[in-house]
Amino acid sequence: MPSYLFWLFATIMLIGACAVIAFRNPVSSALAMVTSFVGLAALFIGLSAFFVGVIQILVYSGAIMVLFLFIIMLLDLKDEKRRTESYLPLVAGLSLVGIFFIQLIGVLSNKLPNQSAPILDKATLAAAAGDYPEGSKINEALTNGKLPDVHLIGETLFTQYNLPLQILGILLLVATVGVVVLSKRQTN
Amino acid sequence: MPEVVTATLIDLAIIITKIVAFTFMVVLPLVPLSVYFERRFSAIIQDRVGPNRVGIPLTLFGAKKDFHLFGLVQPIADGLKLFLKEDFTPDHVRKAFYWLAPVLTVVPALITVCVVPFGPDVTLFGRTEKLVIADLDVGPLFIFAISSLTVYGITLAGWSSNSKFPFIGGVRSTAQMISYEICLGLSVIPVLLYFGDLNLNNIVQEQADNGWLLLPFWTDGKLSLPSLQTTLFMIPAFIAFIIFTVSIFAETNRMPFDLPECETELVGGYHTEYSSMKFAMFFMGEYAAMVIGSALIITLFLGGWSAGFGFDEAIANFSIGDFRIGGFIHVGIFLTKLLVFILFFILVRWTVPRFRYDQLMKLGWVIFFEAALINVFLAALIIAAPGMASTITVIGLILLAVVTAAIIWVAKVSEPPAKVLRA
User: Fold this and answer.
1) What is the pLDDT of residues B200-227, one digit of tens each?
2) Which of A39, B48, B110, B111 is the 20 to 30 Å CA partner of B133?
3) Which residues 71-100 on chain A approach chain B with CB closer than 8 angstroms?
4) Which residues contact B158 (CB under 8 A, 6 or more apart)?
5) Which residues numbered 123-152 in A keep a CB inside 8 Å of some CB on B?
6) Is residue A151 a contact partner of residue A51, using CB atoms and an 8 Å limit?
7) Does any CB of chain A come closer than 8 Å to the CB of residue B369?
8) How far apart are the first and last CA of chain A?
């Protein structure tokens, strides 16, 4: 992604993120969060992770935040009142920020082994094609100089992480059934 | 370097041309055209005449008679009327969101145009260009993702109007759209499994070569009977088609499912407080979503731009001199299919009565959700069967039958007994 696009979307994302806490109206905050998610999705797409970017919009902006908004509207929340300032939370918050900042400096000052992302040009992709069986879709796409990110994610998930994926699936199913049971009990 | 700069400029010019041509000269004019069709078609269904007068007013320029043009100029007159109406903003609305909401319904619908393939590639002036704005490898997902943002427009319109009926409309639309998005996503999985690709252009090319998903009667461009696997796959494909089409109706708030703007209960639903061009934007958003929905159904199930029956290669290679312009004929075929589908949408709107809200939710969560899930497994079984031992396939089939029977049984048991009505 050209760097000016990165700065554009990073700015959109940061403005959205700041607006989430700056707005007093909960609906405005929720919408600011959606803006931030859309900016984040654009950054993913800039890193050639089309699938992750699109899923980010589909799941977070399109489903989860809609549910948030739905509940905010149903609860009919009023604008948040300004509370009397007390210094303890402020100091605690600032010191947390300071600690993370020091950590960030510590990480950035070390020479990382691979600081720049690999350039996804035709030669690199074609060279990577050998790792996949001849005649498969991934091999074909890589040889043609395209990054088949959806196929690669699927391949990784269903071969390397098959068992954890299925365990996660069952966990989610149990959670869903649990929610249904709990909500049924409340209505009866 | 000037050469690089010129190349970039040419690329940019091509992209802008595509955007302007497809979004503003193909899809956007389809919106008033479908409004016209809606009015004429509903008139025919109800044995009326419909708007057939507005044409070219030749009498203004001294001619004897007006040129009626079947009333085709009516949409322009409608648009002009909406432009010139007073744009009234009620006092009790939340201003910022009230202004934002109509925009949020139109923009996503128009953004999704960019992955719809209008035709195969054409060669002009020695350059080969695909007739699609952005040839993304995540086509259907991109359309789902962006169109899922439409819900904000309707929800915010309902909420910001700050009055009862629009609010109920907004809440209804939120619940409805989230529910049917799930059916939409699940029902399309068998199709994606079959093609093994998420690029809409490749999906259409595959259908042009080997038969449309619902009409697989040619292979490699020659008429032939489908193989056993393809024949069997028509079952899940057809189930997926039905679920997908009905879900698109629900997603676009079209008639049997237009509960968010149900006039008999909610005055006008979420757009009660809107007037003039802001109201027209909601109207436009709804119709644009309908056009894109039809385009997606055609692309996934009915061969997109392909003419079918082995004619595609000949049409695509049609050329005058060095210009291989057969692709534009395919655009015409695509638009014809699109118009037929829009007419189908209109036919359904004027023949099927509106659902009740609990019926709508039940249809989505109890029937379609389960049917789509079982359909995914059925499709996977059919696709994987040639590579598996026959005993495993049979065991899989039996398991699937047991699970299906169990789900139907649970659905029947959990249904509350019908109340006995007494006069």
Assistant:
1) 888 888 888 888 888 888 777 777 777 8
2) A39
3) 73-74
4) B166, B167, B168, B169, B170, B171, B173, B260, B269, B270
5) 137, 146, 148-150
6) no
7) no
8) 55
pTM: 0.87
B40-57 pLDDT per residue, tens: 888 988 888 888 877 777
Which of A57, A137, A149 is the closest to B145 by Cβ? A57
Number of helices (H), then strands (E), in chain A: 9, 0
CB contact under 8 A, B137 and A61: no
Taking Cα atoms as reference points, which of B212, B192, B249 lies closest to residue B375? Answer: B192
Beta-carbon pairs below 8 A across chains A and B = 68
Does the interface ipTM go beyond 0.95?
no
Beta strands in B242-383 (DSSP E): 319-320, 323-324
Q: Which residues of A touch B156 (CB under 8 A)?
A: 27, 31
Tell me the CATH number for domain A1-78: 1.20.120.1200
At A15-61, the pLDDT tens digits run 999 999 888 888 888 889 999 999 999 998 888 888 899 999 988 88
Q: What digits encode the pLDDT tens for the residues B45-97?
A: 888 888 887 777 777 777 777 777 777 888 888 888 888 888 888 888 888 88
B146, A146: Cβ pair inside 8 Å?
no
